[in-house]
Structure to design on (176 residues):
């Protein structure tokens, strides 16, 4: 089975033990991504946010041949507890109904596709998307190492993940 993983944040520059076979490719599908999850490290992480504008994400082949092994590797890398299955998304292509991700994967001869499926989070509420103003105020309220970590994360997210929040944060905080 040929399995690939989608990525749009730190997974790209810090895959950890995720068995990425040949590096990340830039021609991924369009996915609605936004800087809308206050993560445990303090950064405003990129996640799938259904009302966001779709942007082209990255993808990579995984050096595994079983979907459960691929999902476990991604869950471990992301620090998602095994009992929380909703933190990983997957699509078994040959059984999936038609759709943009399915069509994109079929064009690349991918049998299964996985991604991190954590929801937006703001004010400690899972699923809550901060407004762009709240996002800027949150980041601007950070200090010291937490602020530096958040800024580093923001700057390392590949420029093709060009979202409205990214542009507003650049303008509002001067983060390039």
């Amino acid at each position: 089975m040929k399995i690939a993983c989608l990525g749009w944040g730190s997974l790209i520059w810090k895959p950890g033990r995720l068995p990425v076979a040949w590096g990340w490719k830039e021609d991924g599908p369009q996915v609605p991504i936004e800087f809308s999850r206050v993560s445990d490290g303090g950064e405003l992480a990129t996640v799938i946010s259904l009302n966001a504008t779709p942007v082209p994400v990255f993808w990579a082949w995984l050096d595994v041949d079983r979907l459960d092994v691929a999902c476990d590797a991604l869950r471990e890398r992301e620090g998602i507890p095994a009992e929380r299955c909703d933190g990983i998304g997957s699509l078994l292509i040959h059984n999936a109904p038609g759709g943009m991700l399915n069509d994109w994967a079929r064009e690349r001869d991918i049998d299964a596709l996985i991604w991190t499926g954590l929801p937006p989070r703001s004010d400690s509420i899972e699923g809550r998307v901060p407004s762009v103003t709240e996002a800027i105020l949150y980041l601007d309220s950070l200090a010291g190492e937490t602020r530096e970590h958040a800024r580093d994360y923001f700057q390392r997210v590949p420029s093709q993940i060009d979202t409205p929040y990214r542009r507003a944060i650049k303008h509002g905080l001067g983060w390039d």
User: Anything to note?
Assistant: Strands lie at 3-7, 30-38, 44-48, 54-56, 58-61, 88-92, 112-116, 121-122, 125-126. The chain has one domain: 3-173. DSSP finds six helices and nine strands in the chain.
